[in-house]
Here is the input.
Amino acid sequence: MDNSAVNQPTHERISQIEMEKRLKEAGKQEQFYSIALFDILGFSNYVTTHGNQTILELYNKLLDIVYTPDISKAVPIRMSDDWKEGRYIANANGHVNVCHFSDTFIIYVHYLCRREAYWLATPKYEPYPLLLGEKDTPYCPIFYQEHQIYLSFLQTCMDFFCQSIIAGIPLRGCVSSGFALMDSNKSIYFGTPLVEAARGEPARKAIGISFGKSFNNHHPVYNDYFIPFWDFIKTDDPKSKFISPMVLDWPRYWRISPDFKDFSFADCIKKMNTNPELFTPL
Here is the structure.
């Protein structure tokens, strides 16, 4: 594989037609992706109880979240080599995609192209950034060069997850990064991050979003997005080796996002909690 294309992101202004052409071509080759796989817990019983319309509404909501970027959402981009100094930019997400079948949703993004950003004046300071920390672990440089795409991708995942809580749909997910082939035009999807996410997702005890073990190789640098939480891991499940003890901090996202200020976090969770085995205390 020629990695030159991976290491040269497209930043210049190009037409929408040209962008779609480049994205289509990129999907035909193996690229570095971040992938989130979600499953609906108790799907058969859920459909029987709530009907197909509720699931269809979540499908449409996901498509709206992914394909209608919110320019008000901001993420930090590094301004110093040690990642401590940054500036916020809005609409920095890459071209996020989604595919779904029955009870499974897959949200994914590669790092070749990103949308034009809107620079904001707000500074960002991270006193304890996470840098490369594990010896002899593989990583892809573009993940750091275009890290704002990853952060926006995580926002999309959290947005989708929070919307599912409001809809009363219990989701469990796992986020992984690595090389994969994701050709939406031919519906061809395979690669190590997909395997990791598919195996890691059922290794958690409750709803929420885990990080796959690839998190240990591709460290996020701004830690507003994740927290350590060991108790969710099924210690007696061999699939637990595929996930990291870090989880995506969607409760924090809920608290700070204006989109969810009119919804009671506790009431939504309580309404969903018809099966205590699927939930852990918040």
